[in-house]
Structure to design on (233 residues):
């Protein structure tokens, strides 16, 4: 039984991941920003704004007081903005960068020392295929995920000698609240553009995160694993 810390576990991909790990017998702490929607056995919600390093330090402390040191960190909390590049200002840039990349930076900065001390640990980031290929009308979002991918690859090289594996899962289009601005016909068009003919589910991503966290993935590090139904090949 391990202690898994998931940011953004209240909804969507994070909630599916929290449920999967808890169902496998692990202790799960999840961070939420607004409301602890998800409840369950072996699942403990802790409020945390991942953009704020002080909030992250305080919340990681609470998580470790409850379940001991974090063995698997899943940095999943994220936001997206859709619009032309010129629609956004500096405030928007700071908010999306501080959430999508800053959240990963703040969480890893807090947790790496204890993983290094113990000579083991797994760090997983939830990125996006748009970080790999770029998306029209999601330029800022894509840039934040590109930063996530580079950071993951760099951390893997830096932390491998300390027995810590670092990977990202890079989802395609996944049907969550993040897609709420899309109409049914938008979603149908996206499914049609996906070789496997459907949108992804939160569980598709959760299952990949679970595999990457375990011993069967013990020789995998520094990878950006696409889970996108073939949308990006
Ligand atoms: P949702 O919008 O369903 O959930 C977002 C989660 O992030 C919520 O739990 C939310 O908490 C949390 N969150 C947002 N901002 C903060 C913050 N500052 N501090 C702490 N928690 C925060 O999103 P998804 O499940 O769809 O997305 C999860 C990840 O997957 C994101 O990184 C996203 O970029 C990525 N992704 C999603 C895709 C998709 O198509 N859905 C595709 C590719 C990548 P609260 O509930 O409290 O607001």
């Amino acid at each position: 039984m391990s202690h898994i810390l998931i940011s953004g576990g209240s909804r969507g991909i994070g909630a599916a991941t929290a449920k999967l790990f808890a169902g496998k017998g692990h202790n799960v702490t999840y961070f939420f920003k607004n409301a602890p929607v998800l409840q369950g056995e072996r699942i403990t919600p802790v409020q945390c704004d991942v953009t704020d390093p002080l909030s992250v330090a305080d919340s990681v402390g609470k998580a470790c007081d409850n379940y001991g040191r974090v063995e698997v960190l899943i940095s999943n909390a994220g936001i997206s903005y859709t619009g032309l590049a010129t629609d956004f200002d500096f405030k928007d840039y700071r908010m999306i960068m501080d959430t999508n990349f800053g959240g990963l930076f703040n969480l890893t900065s807090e947790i790496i020392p204890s993983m290094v001390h113990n000579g083991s640990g797994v760090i997983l980031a939830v990125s996006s295929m748009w970080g790999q290929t770029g998306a029209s009308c999601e330029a800022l979002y894509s840039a934040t995920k590109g930063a996530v991918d580079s950071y993951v690859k760099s951390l893997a090289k830096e932390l491998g000698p300390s027995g810590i594996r670092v990977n990202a899962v890079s989802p395609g289009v996944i049907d969550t609240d993040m897609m709420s601005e899309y109409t049914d016909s938008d979603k149908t068009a996206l499914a049609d553009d996906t070789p496997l003919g459907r949108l992804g589910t939160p569980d598709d991503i959760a299952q990949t995160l679970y595999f990457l966290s375990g011993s069967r993935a013990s020789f995998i590090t520094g990878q950006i694993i696409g889970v996108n139904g073939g949308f990006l090949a």
About this structure: The beta strands are 3-7, 27-32, 43-47, 72-75, 121-126, 164-171, 224-227.
